């Protein structure tokens, strides 16, 4: 024994993993040779005089500094959560520019999706069903705050452009005396050209809980009409 004491890491495992993922994403960004071409592929805009990429995510506009990868809201009003930074960078660096096919698929049709579906259901679909299933019309009202619009699936469906080339479509079927409400989330078949399956899970979970929080607060944080559903 040397008498030295072991010290515990100051960061949690999750914080460490997020920090590492962000660092790797920044390195991928810095290695892009033609940044303007990548902006075309992702639907973003490059401002060469400022060395800044402008990209939309869930009805808000973000700045990505190039090449260091710092992500901030263009309004500068609040800090961007690390998980959102990683998603934004992953989308931008991975984007292949594939046109939308307008062919809808479910999570089970994604690479490895069928294996991870139980986790995806619990994290992304269940919150939407639990909070909106009995009054599905509220999903359309709340989703509009995130830029969503009505889609023709199920009893109620909305399409939310998570990114320019990544539409996400939550779908609800009303319950009755015999059956409980059901739900699903649908994607354009090209989504894997923009995000890996793991990121799609995180993105849909983020959207689901944003919708739930907006329902509970009546959308006050975005200055929208109040819904007394808390």
Extract low-pLDDT stretches: 221-230
C-alpha end-to-end distance: 57 Å
Strand tally: 9
Tally of domains: 2
* Approximate shape: globular
Question: Going across the major beta sheet, what is the strand order?
Answer: 5-9-8-7-6
User: What is the number of helices?
Assistant: 6
Approximate helicity band: 25-40%
Average pLDDT, to the nearest integer? Answer: 91
Radius of gyration: 19 Å
Secondary structural class: alpha+beta
Topology as a string of helices (H) and strands (E): HHEEEEHEHHEEEEH
Proportion of residues in extended strands:
15-25%
Largest sheet: 5 strands, antiparallel
List keywords for this structure.
globular, 230 residues, 9 strands, alpha+beta
Give a verbal description of the structure.
With 230 residues, the protein is of the alpha+beta class. The chain has 2 domains: 82 residues, no CATH class; 119 residues. 38% of the residues lie in helices and 20% in strands. Strands 5-9-8-7-6 form a 5-stranded antiparallel β-sheet. It starts with 12 loop residues before the first helix and ends in a 13-residue tail after the last helix.
